[in-house]
């Protein structure tokens, strides 16, 4: 059990300790290594970037096959390679690249990003440099090695991360940019971006979401003057800054610090606030591992870092009940938000009825829930609300059966029986052809 310490801030009330269940968090936990497909292809991602070769047309996604993010050209046929075993990026994910919801000032994610900017601008007289247009395609070195993610960490598996090839991924966190920016000499910076993770399906999980990373570097004269050691000084400054941020976003709330683990920081903490009658994690943070500074040629410095998920916070602040809504282009959603209006409460325009379909099958050794969810999303897209395991048994012969319940529900309209039956039929077909399972 992690220890929690209470916050004694002049802005916010101290709280009493409460136990809390922690939900799954990838950078906090370790798991056994999952073998990768052999790393046959070199990092050849950008080799054909300007070759102008003809693009395959997709029947499902009428998406531009070439796009640009922060000056980097992204070509669909380099990113989606069905015939390449080191690649697991589907069309549905490619179609999100370049949308950059966090750069829209009238979108809840853009409004939240700007509110955080405002906090740092006001309190650090504009010294934090902001990046929100860095390419989400990064090397495994940047995404994992540079931030000390262990070789056997679960986040490196093909089951959890989208690989473009063996050495290139869609970033799974904005921490992927820490070392590059430290190396460039930045001392205070914020990085906002879309991040990508293979995951299960429910109201709070979507394979693309948005994070903001913050880093502040100190030089020896700063902590020496304080009489504190470097780590204590950074931890103290970190806690003060982030408590201020939480108050800026949530008002006068109770807070507490929980000790935790991240590969990139030591010590590591989570900030929780007591909001709407429960403790809620706001962000992860800590004092940057000295090894990261060493790799950035910043041996003499000490630094702190934090990372937060924008959707998590925006869902609470704007009362948005389903993570799919962030992607909605329905005017009844988009018209409810405007620049600078943090916390305008979302008014659901209608709650359409869900439709549940069960599917039972014998699994194979390679079966994973994330793979199933990818197949379901590939067919039903945002019409799928939840995929839930409702039955699981192994028979005398050692065969394991799973039954999943798929909830279909649009956030925008009523679905017809006919449409849902067709989707379910297509899901069953795709499960058989792609997942190596036997339907029952
Ligand atoms: N990268 C972490 C994640 O995605 C979040 C995080 C935690 C970032 C602690 C940090 C940090 O910079 O210090 O879960």
Main features:
440 residues; alpha+beta; BirA Bifunctional Protein, domain 2; Alpha-Beta Plaits; four-stranded antiparallel beta sheet; 12 helices; 25% strand; binds 3,4-dihydroxyphenylalanine
Overview of the structural elements:
Strand 6 and strand 7 form a beta hairpin. The relative contact order is 0.13. The two termini are 42 Å apart. It contains 12 helices and 17 strands. The longest helix is centred in the middle third of the chain and has 21 residues, at 230-250. Residues 8-24 and 30-61 have low confidence and may be disordered. Helix 3 (108-123) packs across helix 9 (310-317). The chain folds into 2 domains: 66-325, 2-Layer Sandwich (BirA Bifunctional Protein, domain 2); 355-439, Alpha-Beta Plaits, CATH 3.30.70. The strands form 4 sheets. It has an 8-stranded mixed sheet. Strands 15-16-14-17 form a 4-stranded antiparallel sheet, with helices on one face. It is an alpha+beta fold. Bound molecules: 3,4-dihydroxyphenylalanine. The site of 3,4-dihydroxyphenylalanine (DAH) has 13 residues, from strand 12 and strand 13. 3,4-dihydroxyphenylalanine binds at residues 27, 173, 175, 213, 262, 264-265, 284-286, 305-307.
């Amino acid at each position: 059990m992690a220890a929690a310490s209470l916050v004694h801030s002049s802005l916010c009330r101290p709280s009493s300790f409460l136990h809390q269940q922690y939900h799954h968090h990838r950078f906090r936990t370790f798991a056994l290594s999952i073998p990768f497909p052999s790393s046959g292809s070199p990092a050849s991602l950008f080799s054909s970037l300007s070759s102008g070769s003809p693009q395959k047309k997709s029947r499902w996604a009428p998406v531009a096959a070439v796009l640009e993010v922060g000056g980097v050209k992204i070509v669909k046929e380099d990113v989606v390679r069905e015939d390449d075993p080191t690649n697991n990026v589907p069309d549905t994910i490619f179609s999100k690249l370049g949308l950059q919801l966090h750069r829209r000032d009238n979108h809840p994610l853009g409004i939240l990003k700007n509110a955080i900017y405002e906090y740092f601008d006001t309190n650090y007289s504009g010294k934090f440099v902001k990046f929100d247009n860095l390419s989400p395609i990064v090397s495994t070195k940047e995404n994992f090695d540079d931030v000390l993610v262990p070789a056997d960490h679960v986040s490196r598996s093909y089951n959890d991360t989208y690989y473009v090839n063996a050495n290139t991924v869609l970033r799974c966190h904005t921490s992927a940019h820490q070392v590059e920016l430290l190396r460039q000499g930045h001392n205070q910076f914020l990085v906002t971006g879309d991040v990508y993770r293979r995951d299960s399906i429910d109201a709070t999980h979507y394979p693309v979401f948005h994070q903001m990373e913050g880093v502040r570097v100190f030089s020896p004269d700063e902590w020496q003057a304080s009489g504190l050691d470097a780590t204590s000084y950074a931890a103290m400054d970190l806690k003060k800054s982030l408590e201020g941020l939480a108050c800026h976003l949530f008002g006068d709330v109770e807070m507490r610090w929980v000790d935790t683990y991240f590969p990139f920081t030591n010590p590591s903490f989570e900030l929780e606030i007591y909001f709407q009658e429960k403790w809620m994690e706001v962000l992860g943070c800590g004092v940057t591992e000295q090894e990261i500074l060493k790799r950035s040629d910043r041996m003499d410095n000490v630094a702190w870092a934090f990372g937060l998920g924008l959707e998590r916070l925006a869902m609470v602040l704007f009362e948005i009940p389903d993570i799919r809504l962030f992607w909605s282009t329905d005017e009844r959603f988009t018209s409810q938000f405007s620049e600078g209006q943090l916390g305008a409460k979302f008014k659901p325009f209608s709650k359409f009825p869900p439709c549940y379909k069960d599917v039972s099958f014998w699994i194979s050794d390679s079966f994973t829930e994330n793979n199933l969810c990818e197949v379901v999303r590939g067919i039903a897209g945002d019409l799928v609300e939840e995929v839930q395991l409702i039955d699981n048994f192994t028979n005398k012969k050692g065969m394991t059966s799973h039954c999943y319940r798929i909830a279909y529900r649009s956030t925008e309209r009523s679905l017809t029986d006919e449409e849902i039956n067709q989707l379910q039929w297509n899901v069953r077909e795709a499960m058989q052809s792609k997942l190596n399972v036997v339907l029952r």
